Each structure stands twice: as structure tokens, then as C-alpha cells.
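RECORD TYPE: inverse folding
INPUT: C-alpha cells
STRUCTURE:
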């Protein structure tokens, strides 16, 4: 069975469990999503389902997107994402809602982290910084040496240096589902979820159970 949804992060709140302990909870407006395409192993080489989320005005989509949806008699959907599945019991046009998840299940939530612009190595990668003494007053937040001299004679690709911080795909793993409200298409997970309020997220079964 497909255990995946596209949603929008609403924000954080707290709820109390049976023992009276306050739990930090992230609320996500998940679905309803429509199955817009089914990929089969005998055709594409793998099994997957493409879901669509968030109805919009047709002028917001390209001609190719509109044609893809209209050919299956689906409404204009702003976001299309693909989820791998083990079996293909779904067919195009099916609606998927939050009731596929139950309270107590573990899920992975994928989102895009907040962009924080250009940042130095101390803020971006939590470098320790250099000594404040022995004449290094201007090197406190500097990253230090970039590489050796003759060997390798260059800086390795991927070295941790100053640059664009955030705005990356992040997965919060193993979050516990503590709230499912099918009437309002809401799902609540225990803990924080990457991205700002209103950011697009994908919810799927936890890979590490």
C-alpha cells in the first residue's frame, strides 16, 4: 500500500499525551492528493506512483503539465512528486488522504531547509575558529588552512568553506505521528520539520523502523 503524501507545513504547536507531558508537534496540511501517473516495472523498470497536490488556476501551469493532467481528467495541480512503492494497486485518478497514516506510526518528512544566504565557515559548519592571541586578532572566525603545499597542490572539491547556507533538501527521519484529522486534512508529527511555514513537504513511511 502506498504510504506517501504531499503537504504544506502549517506551523508548530503542542499537545498533551495521556501522562500530561507536553509534546512539540508540527502540523502539516497533507492532501488530498491525486494519483496522476503509475509507473510499472515492465515499462519503466521500477514501481512508483506520481501524486499531485494543491489545485490552482490553469494559467499557473505549463502546456505540458496541463496536457498531462487533462488526459487523465484530473484538475490542475501545482505540485507533482513521485513515490516508490512495492506493488501497484493504485490507478490514475485515485484520491489519497491522510487516513492512510495512523497514530503511532513512524514517518520520514522531506522538505527544503530555510535559506540563510552567504555564511562563513564558523556559522555554516560550526568551525571552532582560531586563537584570539599571538597576533591573530583578525583570524578568530577564519576557517584556517585550505590544503597542503606541493601535495596535493590544490583544494579538494567539497571542502567545507564559506558559501550559501541552507536551501537544501533535508529529511527528518523517524517522526512519530501523534495526530490525524481526516476532516481538515491535517497530520501532526512529534518534532520539527525542515522548511518555513507554508513550505512544501513530502511524508512517507519511515525507512528505519
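DESIGNED SEQUENCE:
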Amino acid at each position: 500500500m502506498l504510504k506517501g503524501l504531499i503537504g504544506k507545513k502549517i506551523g508548530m504547536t503542542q499537545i498533551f499525551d495521556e501522562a500530561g507531558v507536553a509534546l512539540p508537534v508540527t502540523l502539516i496540511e497533507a492532501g488530498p492528493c491525486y494519483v496522476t501517473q503509475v509507473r510499472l516495472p515492465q515499462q519503466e523498470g521500477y514501481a512508483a506512483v506520481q501524486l499531485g497536490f494543491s489545485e490552482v488556476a490553469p494559467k499557473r501551469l505549463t502546456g505540458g503539465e496541463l496536457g498531462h493532467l487533462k488526459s487523465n481528467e484530473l484538475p490542475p495541480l501545482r505540485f507533482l512528486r513521485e513515490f516508490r512503492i512495492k506493488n501497484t494497486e493504485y490507478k490514475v485518478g485515485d484520491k489519497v488522504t491522510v487516513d492512510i497514516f495512523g497514530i503511532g506510526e513512524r514517518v520520514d518528512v522531506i522538505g527544503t531547509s530555510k535559506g540563510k544566504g552567504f555564511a562563513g565557515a564558523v556559522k555554516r559548519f560550526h568551525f571552532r575558529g582560531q586563537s584570539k592571541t599571538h597576533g591573530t586578532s583578525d583570524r578568530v572566525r577564519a576557517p584556517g588552512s585550505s590544503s597542503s603545499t606541493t601535495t596535493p597542490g590544490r583544494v579538494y572539491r567539497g571542502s567545507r568553506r564559506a558559501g550559501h547556507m541552507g536551501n537544501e533538501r533535508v529529511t527528518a527521519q523517524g517522526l512519530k505521528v501523534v495526530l490525524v484529522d481526516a476532516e481538515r486534512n491535517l497530520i501532526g508529527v512529534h518534532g520539527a520539520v525542515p522548511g518555513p511555514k507554508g513550505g512544501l513537504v513530502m511524508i512517507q513511511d519511515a525507512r528505519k523502523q
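NOTES: The mean pLDDT is 91.
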